[in-house]
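Lab notebook page, bench 4
Experiment: in silico fold of construct C2
Operator: M.H.
Input chain length: 410 residues
Purpose: comparison with the prior construct
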Amino acid sequence: MEICIVGAGPGGAAAALKLSYLGIPSVLIDKQVFPRDKVCGDALSGKVITLLNRLDPAIMQRFAQIPRQPVWGIRFIAPNRKVIDLPFKVNYDPAAEPAPGFVARRMDFDNFLISEVRRRDNIRLMEGVEVGEMQRIEEGYRIKDKNGATLAETPLLIVANGAHSQFARKQAGMKKELKHYAAAVRAYYENVSGFHPDGFIELHFLEDIIPGYFWIFPLPDGGANVGLGMRADFVKKKGLSLRKKMEEIIHSHPAIKGRFARARRCGEIEGYGLPLGSSHQRISGEHYMLVGDAGHLIDPLSGEGIGNAMYSGFIAADQAAACLSANDFSAETMLAYDKRVDRVLGSEFRISYRLQKMLSHKRLAIWMANLIHKNRPLIEFMTEMYNDLSARKKLLNPLFWIKLLGGGKR
């Protein structure tokens, strides 16, 4: 019997692919027909590259054929306009090394993943099919379409249908808390100027939008993914329209407007929600697991969702294999999925949430920027954080900053 996966975005597609390579058949259902667009920041972290290569190096060779912008680091712009460039690797060489990250339109990246799905004989892809009901039955779940017709029956349901998943909210009991939820808007532009020569993505912590940030991510065709995000409780408290605020920044902010002098927006400014991984909730139960945005697995600081969705999809596939082997789909057995996701992503989420709260204080953000700005040893240390979670934890320790002020060792 097939494992059923509802939602064919990065999390669902990753789960199907990993199951396929494990020799386990699946049915993958999505209401859209690919290629299709998805509102997102479009950034692909090193997690994505690592997971695809781990699954099959040949996939990475095919990935190299899609339009994508190599990314070598992050440019942070503090409220006092101090610029801090943090490469993902110390002394990197773009001419001799593969890039550690990329920006690729979701239209292209998600379609690439679906093209990989189509290569696998043991994945049954159902596009353009909207699920109407995920009905609990004795053997697992029965999946029906909007007209009540049965699409599949499965011993194990993997729910990967995004931030607004009705199953996650109504059947799995996932709660939407504004302090653990972000709102964001984004649009595509062409002819934006002033990018870092090595394609650094940009996070602008502008004075009047703290604790949110404005971003500019370079795209492979000379365009840009431009957006504004903020924790939902602050959006409500400030009474902001993120769309209006984004346009105001682009047209009026002294540090931004010059870069958009010749720019043209391609399409509308679109909004979306981000369920953050800062709230610990159960993401599995009897005969089911939640993957990606449906499981609230978005990084609270960076907003990264694609890599986390794919990681959870891979973990869900491994858990599915274990359940099938033992013929045990109980809630107690499924708890192993929660524990592994927490082990892989939980510490990162908790650190990001605490850093997010630190950066919500404008004076503290400016103080940190002044301290880090042009401090090469400290910048190199912060570069280590990209690959070393223990290094990131030091930022939360007041003694770390006291030692820096006193000239002591880190």
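Observations: The domain at 178-275 is CATH 3.30.9.10 (D-Amino Acid Oxidase; Chain A, domain 2). The mean pLDDT is 92.
Next step: discuss at group meeting.
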